[in-house]
Design goal:
Strand content: over 45%
Bound molecules: manganese (II) ion
CATH topology of the largest domain: Jelly Rolls
CATH superfamily of the largest domain: Jelly Rolls
Number of helices: 1
Helix content: under 10%
Radius of gyration: 19 Å
Structural class: mainly beta
Number of strands: 26
Number of domains: 2
CATH class of the largest domain: Mainly Beta
Length: about 290
């Protein structure tokens, strides 16, 4: 049994995206700052409508998945295929852009707090040009389990085993076998999670700090930073200076070349240039007849 240590910390940096939505970006905040297969993690958290009201108007994606998880607020998703998805507090959306999607993600509120996350998950080369797919996840569809030593976890993707009872999350069976948990721990509580030892994994505390790693060798991870973990088959964290809330995100690394140009993430420069041309020509989303 090997316990994962906190290997390095990617602090989040205030930035803005879309039409001026203020957010904090950790993974993906600099060119090449990936945790394979994860390309980006944004946290948006503000009470000020001016920070979010302009939203993310029509924009494209190709070659990866976006996962939006809302803690508070209301976001409307609309895409070029006429799909509409309403993301409300506690809900999520898992979208595979595949060959191409053009969509908007717009706040539906003019007051109050908007709080949530967007994660970008890379796709293997073989799936980058597949048809788009998405799943809107209602808050009640996300299993919430009580943890052995206190606290609870919501299981958006992957699964969790508590005292021998395995609870699957909503999303399972994707190529990168993503694990996406939202965990709440009371002060002093420990949490252990077992996973494939070669999976990439990171923690993102968004309230409170965590002690990460084996007792006696643990390191502190401050809030609003992505703590990237070493390999090993067990994650151990303790909430030590008050209650903590954090995301645990893990997945199977693709070990393929990553070439990114904004919202296009492919394997080669040529493929990225093709994506840009397809977008300019209006064929980004056109699925070739079989
Ligand atoms: Mn988008």
């Amino acid at each position: 049994m090997s316990i994962r240590q906190l290997q390095h910390v990617i602090e989040s940096i205030p930035t803005s995206d879309g039409a001026g939505v203020k957010l904090r970006r950790s993974i993906g905040s600099q060119r090449g700052l990936y945790v394979d297969p994860f390309l980006m993690l944004d946290e948006f958290s503000t009470d000020n409508p001016e920070d979010y009201i302009a939203g993310f108007p029509s924009h494209p994606h190709r070659g990866f998945e976006t996962v939006t998880y809302m803690l508070e607020g209301h976001l409307l998703h609309e895409d070029h295929m006429g799909n509409r998805g309403d993301l409300k507090s506690g809900g999520a959306q898992w979208m595979r852009a595949g060959r191409g999607i053009i969509h908007s993600e717009m706040p539906q509120q003019t007051q109050g707090r908007l709080r949530g996350f967007q994660l970008w998950v890379n796709l293997p080369a073989l799936e980058k040009m597949t048809p788009p797919w998405y799943r809107d996840i209602e808050p009640h569809e996300i299993p919430q389990v009580t943890l052995a030593e206190g606290g609870s976890a919501r299981v958006i993707a992957g699964s969790i085993n508590v005292a021998g009872i395995v609870t699957p999350g909503v999303i399972t069976g994707h190529a990168t076998e993503p694990i996406y948990l939202d965990v709440e721990l009371p002060n002093g509580s420990a949490f252990h999670y077992y996973l494939e030892s070669n999976f990439s994994a990171f923690l993102y505390p968004y309230e409170g700090a965590l002690q990460v790693g084996a007792i006696g060798q643990s390191r502190e991870l401050k809030p609003q930073s992505a703590g990237v973990l070493s390999h090993g088959d067990q994650i151990t964290v303790v909430a030590q200076e008050g209650p903590a809330r954090f995301l645990l995100i893990a997945g199977k690394p693709l070990k393929e070349p990553v070439v990114q140009y904004g919202p296009f993430v492919m394997n080669t420069q040529n493929e990225v240039e093709q994506a840009l041309r397809d977008y300019q020509n209006g064929t980004l989303t056109v699925i070739d007849p079989a």
